[in-house]
Structures are given as C-alpha cells and as structure tokens.
Amino acid sequence: MERLYLNHQCLKDEKGQVASWIQVFKLGKFQHRFDELVIDDQFFEEIVSNFNAYRERLKADSFVVPIDYNHAGLADGEEGKAAGWIQELEIRDTGLYAKVAWTKRATEFIRNDEFKYISPEFSVEGDVDEFGEEIDGAFLHAAALTNRPFLRGMESVMLKTENGRKLMIEKIGKHLGLKDVSEETIVKAIDSFNEERAKWSEITETLALKEGETLSDGVSRLIADRDEATKSVTTLKNEIKEIKQSEIEREARGSVEAAEKEGKLLPKQREWALSYAQENPEGFKAFIENAGKQVDFSTKGSGDTDDSDGDPIKGFENLVDKKSAEMNPEDPAKAYAEAWKIVRKENQKLAAQYQRATRAKRV
To answer: Are 181 and 173 in contact (CB under 8 A)?
Structure first.
C-alpha cells in the first residue's frame, strides 16, 4: 500500500520542554496526486483505534510512533535519527493531535525555526505492521519534521505561550460543553456553575437530608411534613372556632334569659332573640335597654286590644308585639323592626307619647 506524506504545522513550547502536543491532521478534503483524500471523524477514529492497538502489541507507554527529519527514518547516519516519538493521540474539534516526546536536538531545531511543520506518514485502506498484523483502516506509521508544507490554512508556527494556552482553553471549553470557546465564556460558565452549586447546597441544607436520602426523598419528606402541619393547623383553627362559638352562645343565652326575667322578651321571641344576640351582641343589648315589658297577645281573646292601663310605652310596645306576631316572619328581628315602623305610622299620636315617655324614663 502506498504511503502518503502530508506536511503540517508543529506546535511548540516556548520553554523548549521535552513533550508537547502538536496537530497532525485537520478536517477537510485534499487533493493528493490523482486522488481526493477525505479526512473526517471516521478517519480520525480509525487512526486512533489502530494506534492504540499497535501500542498494546508494542507493550510500550511511550516511544510508539517515530518522528524523523524529512521522512529519512530509513536512512543511515544522522539523517535517520529520530526527532521525537508520538506517545498519545487525541481527537479534538480542530483536528487530530499527538503528544510528542522530542529529542534535545529536535527541540533546538524547532526553537530556532529550522523546522516548522509536521508531515504524517500513513495508509488509508489497511496495511500490515512489523508484527505481521493486518491493519483495517487508516494507520499512522510515522511523521517527519519538514519545511515543505502541503496543506494550506493551518495554524501558524509560534514560539509563544499562546499555543499551549489556546489548546488548554479549547480543551476546557470542550469539557464545559461550550460552543463559543474563549477565556470570557469559560469564566462565565464556571461562575454560573458555582452559583448553581451554592443554590443546591442551600437546598440540601434546608432539606436536612438524612444518610442515604436522595434529593427526591428529601423533597417528598418535606411535602409530607408540610401536609401534616397544615392538617394540624386546620384542626387547631376549628377547635378555636368551636370554643369561640360556644362562648358566644353562652353569653347570648345569658342575655336572653336576663331579658326574659325582666319581662322584656316573650317566650315566642326566644329563638329570634338567641339568634340576634349571637350575631350582634351590641345591637341586642341596645334593643333590650330600650324595650319595655312585653305582653303576649296570643293569650287574649280576639276582642282584647290593649292592657296598657294608660301607659304609652306599654301601649305602643304591645301594639308592636301584636303586629309582629301577625306577620309570622322567618326573621323575627326584621319582623319586629317592620312592625315597629307600621305601628308608629298608624298610631302617630301614641308614637309621639311613647317617644316622650321613653326619653323621660331615661332621664
């Protein structure tokens, strides 16, 4: 199988460190001699898979695939010496990268700009390695430092910290799942993560999670506690309401019984009076204070109209009682008030006497 030689940029460390990451391939379609070469994600995956399998057969953690000078790896003497060794491969958004352990000599060449590009040596449709193992798919055999680039539009060679810094930013951005990768977006993403972590920390503290409890368990327990507390509060409110109602009824009974003893309420008015005294204690009190002694007209014959004995207060109130009894309303308080108005209108002279007498009585 024919091997293809493509020149590509080499990324360098500004301190001349022994190991550094370099870009070996970039995504795209390239014309090589009479064929079109397609470098895509599947191509990268084949390269990486076969590289890892070859490293296992080689039983080596380093010094796996050699890098020479100008593809002279098979030459004798100085020209055939290694410039470095590819130790790892990694697929990134911008291409396929290799971690290279450089020799001291190659490091000096790179630092002095004597070599500026890397050229991978690979097969694309299968091959056989030195162990006699058949290789399925693309395989990276070697690479070379060179100054004759084949690919265009690659990253420029720089002896600055920006190279390593850029790779690190890209790697961090990828782990954070960022589409637009920059130092600013990375800082924002980390700040957002810290804010969310603080919120979740506050939530877990509030839930007071027990050992072995999940967040869902804690929320369920909190909801159950809330429902139980709501139930208890509702029960307590009902008990307080019942106590208050009992006290209102007790006071109303006392007021009505006192009014009955004074003769200001008739037995037939008791139900109405109890209801009125509970709904409006102050109104009932005022009504009793202004009320005279009552006469039950239902115990008299049809010819009996009045037993006031000349007392205008008794006479007026007796007429009101009689009229109220005739109305037989569902609301006794309303009926009594309506009866009072009717009697006052029909008996204006007696009403005037009643008003004068009640004023004189209060004085």
So the answer is: yes
Q: What would the DSSP string read from start to end of 28-87? A: EEEEETTEEEEE-HHHHHHHHHHHHHHHHHHT-SS--EEEEETT-TTSSGGGGS-SEEEE
Q: Which amino acid is at 219?
A: V
How many other CB atoms are found less than 10 A from the CB of residue 299?
8
Question: How many CB atoms are located within 10 Å of the residue 305 CB?
Answer: 12
Which amino acid, residue 68? D
Question: Which helix (H) or strand (E) is 139 found in, with range?
Answer: strand 139-146
pLDDT in tens, the chain (363 residues): 444 444 444 444 444 446 778 888 888 888 777 678 888 999 999 999 999 988 888 876 666 889 898 888 776 666 778 888 989 999 988 888 888 888 888 888 888 888 888 888 888 887 777 777 888 889 998 988 888 767 666 664 443 444 556 667 777 888 888 878 787 888 888 888 888 777 767 776 766 777 777 777 777 777 887 788 888 888 888 888 888 888 988 998 898 888 888 888 877 788 888 888 888 888 888 888 877 776 554 444 333 344 456 788 888 888 888 888 777 666 677 788 888 888 888 888 888 888 888 777 655
In 280-347, which ranges are continuous DSSP H helix?
281-290, 312-327, 332-346
Q: What letter represents residue 251's amino acid?
A: E
- Map out the domains of the chain as residue ranges: 4-158, 216-288, 292-363
